[in-house]
Amino acid sequence: MGSEGISTGIVHSDRRLGIEHGGVHKPIHTSVQYGFDKVEDLIGVFQGTTKGGFSYARQGTPTTAALEAQITRLERGVGTVCFATGMGAISAVFFTLLRAGDHLVASQFVFGNTNSLFGTLRDFGIEITTVDATDAAQVAAALRPNTRMVFVETIANPGTQVADMPAIGQLCAERGLLFVVDNTITSPALFRPTDVGAGLVVQSLTKTISGHGHALGGAVTDTGRFDWQNHPNIFAAYRKGDPRQWGLAQVRKKGLRDMGATLSSEHAHHISVGAETLALRVAHTSATALALARYLESHPSVVSVRYPMLESHPQHALSKQLFSAGSWLLSFELADTAACMAFINRLQLAVKATGLGDTRTLVIPVAPTIFWEAGPQVRAAMGIADGLIRLSVGLEDSADLLADFEQALR
Ligand SMILES: *Cc1c(COP(=O)(O)O)cnc(C)c1O
Questions:
Q1: 333-347, pLDDT tens digit by residue?
Q2: Which residues form a coiled coil (predicted)?
């Protein structure tokens, strides 16, 4: 079973958890309360001695547990906690594992809302240094005695910068630091952060894993690589049993139970169904994205294209080493910034919308929308030019999509 492919593992994971009433798909459990024949079993759920028991749906249901098992298997981890959104998952990691006076080193190339969250964390007394994480030496230089965590994205949205994860992972291992990787854009179909020593993997299930733009969700997976005995912020209540589960126990109790960004069973079901075609979708969209990136790069009206599988990408060699394909995310700039909006309006298939990882191709000018609130200084620091256009490549037939871009650029 250890060597089986991604798709086989996903489509058979429900069955392996124990089938209910012969249902081949995991049922959607909508009950908020979970009752027991004997009160001792209820007590056992609270005290963690009743195996796999449920008590109150804010902390999980059999349906969300099935999705958690699916993601744990995909990431080759030791456990997963799901959340209502990717931001719910990311917030839970920062707010439950960091304390006032701690220091976080993060990539300066991160999702806009994650960057906005850094501002909130600073107000709670957490020190944050953002660095160009494509260069591990910058991460090393930023470390302080109170550094507790290093946070990067695999392929950064929207600039597609690729953090030097093998070197950062090694650095974190040497210093006993928790390395957290946001695997949203790549997903475990293209890359597993455990392979570069990440202790926690966070991701928005809304994007690649769900893949249909019809459900929000997030996940935190423990890879089992970080030794929680080295982390001073684990409360005594969770320093019990297998130390590999300490961190996730705290994320589930303090992050999910207390903060309450709970994934509903309905959305967990949508995400699980979407995940069944993960490998197929990622292969198709990556191939289309590469064809489109090559076409755009060769077009005289385009000044730059950012896609990790292009030879011109600054981290191309590293990307080839780490990722089995380049994902559905690419961005580019037209030579004439003023022509940008008219070009986007001429696109017929690509939907003018924010969001990522949908079945439909989505296109958005970055500076006046998702990075508007950040302001010009932050945009400059994150390498976001005024004319940058972001694409999330969908499941359309490649030839149709290429034809749409050809007519719009004409
Ligand atoms: C979208 C996204 C998130 C946030 O996920 P939501 O499900 O929208 O909350 C986090 N990180 C990255 C890289 C993203 O693209």
A1: 998 888 999 999 999
A2: none
Strand pairing partners for 389? 332, 365
> Which of 307, 154, 278 lies closest to 207, judged by CA?
278
Residue pLDDT, tens place only, 93-102: 999 999 999 9
Give the position, in ligand 1's atom list, of the atom nearest the Cα of 184: 13
The CATH class of the 8-275 domain is: alpha beta
Residues 220, 80 contacting (CB under 8 angstroms): yes
Residues 6+ apart with CB under 8 A from 23: none
Question: Residue 236 burial (CB < 10 Å; 0-12/13-18/19+)?
Answer: exposed
Sequence ranges of the chain with CATH classification 3.40.640.10 = 8-275
Q: How far is the CA of 322 from the centre of ligand 1 (A)?
A: 21
Ligand 1 mean position, distance from CA 214 (Å): 14
Whole-model pTM? Answer: 0.96
User: Please, where in the chain does CATH 3.90.1150.10 lie?
Assistant: 278-409
390 lines ligand 1 (CB under 6 A): no
- Tokens 């998702």, residue located: 370
Alpha carbon of 18 to ligand 1 centroid (Å): 32
Q: Report the pLDDT value the prediction gives residue 2, as an integer from 0 to 100.
A: 55
CATH class, domain 278-409, is alpha beta
| Beta carbon of 86 within 6 Å of any ligand 1 atom | yes
